Amino acid sequence: MAREGDQTEALAAMEASREGDSTLLLRLRGTWRLAGTLPSAADVTRELERAGATALRVDASGIAGWDSGLVVFLFGVLETCRARGLPVDHEGLPPPLVRMLALVQEAALPPPSSQAPKPRWLERLGRRALGWRERVRDVASFVGETTVALGRFVTGRARFRGQDLGLLLEGAGPGALPIVALVNFLVGIILAFVGITQLRRFGAEYYVADIVGIAVARDMAALITAIVLAGRSGAAYAAQIATMKVTQEVDALRTLGISPVEFLVVPRLVAITLMMPLLTLFADLMGILGGAAVGTTMMNQAVASYLRQTAQSVTQGDIVGGLVKSAVYGALIALTGTARGLEAERSSERVGEAATKAVVTGVVAIIAACGIFQYVFFLFGW
Fold first, then answer.
1. pTM greater than the 0.70 cutoff
2. In CATH, what number does 13-108 get?
3. pLDDT band at 2, cuts 50/70/90?
């Protein structure tokens, strides 16, 4: 027998012969290594078809040496026999090889199909109700923890890094100015075009400044800015916290006795809630300037006259109402983003999923809050 590692090792070979009436005997000899030329499992398939065998026996007594090349070959043979329903006798294989084949086959087996009957509609309804109860409980628990942590922040007892709060204020405020300016300027242009097109039918296009100014100050500036920040800051909050869960930083905070809500959620909630009204004021200006760019060119109206008419039509209540809405929108962005980050599973794949859910949830919450504000303001005649 050639020694393992010898330069004169015998090449891998395979012989197939009939044993009895219905068994195919497969004799393996030589050295089976990936570096050499190995027989293929397809050769065994052809021998099985040619012999019409209903069973297979493997004789590996002639093998001088082997590595994973033999494992791959035998795995292919076993998979072929299993697909055909043929029993395989491989008791003569070396014990380490048998254990490796068992591990490979176990990993390759498909998950067992559940034979449980499909639950009835009443059971499905009950499961959904229990699922919704768990979600409501989780949301209530998160809001409660955030409220307590916010109270500790107000009283100066919250544990967080002041440097983090400064960076969050910069990211949610000055860092968002370019995109907020561009989007709201374009929204002002769109509102002015729509207003002029409709008012021209009645010869009242002069009032386009009133429409743009009131729409921007009351709703559009706060709404558009909030949607922009939901995609910018909300997604970033979710991704940051989800990544911290993957790297076990959140667990480290709990181990040190620090509440993750107090350390991670509260600074983001405070930062974006404080910055949203300031960004909304800036968005009001950009939206009005966008409307002025269209109104002054299409109606040949002086810029000073357009701005004076806007100042006369927009009241202090319109501006204050928009700022109140923006602060609520900012809180919703922070809460949805951080909540999605904290509930994410410990997987890198879930980081992107948490960011996506944060944007979707945040935008839906903002639009729902806008509708509620409209109804409440209507009831109070505002």
1. no
2. 3.30.750.24
3. very low
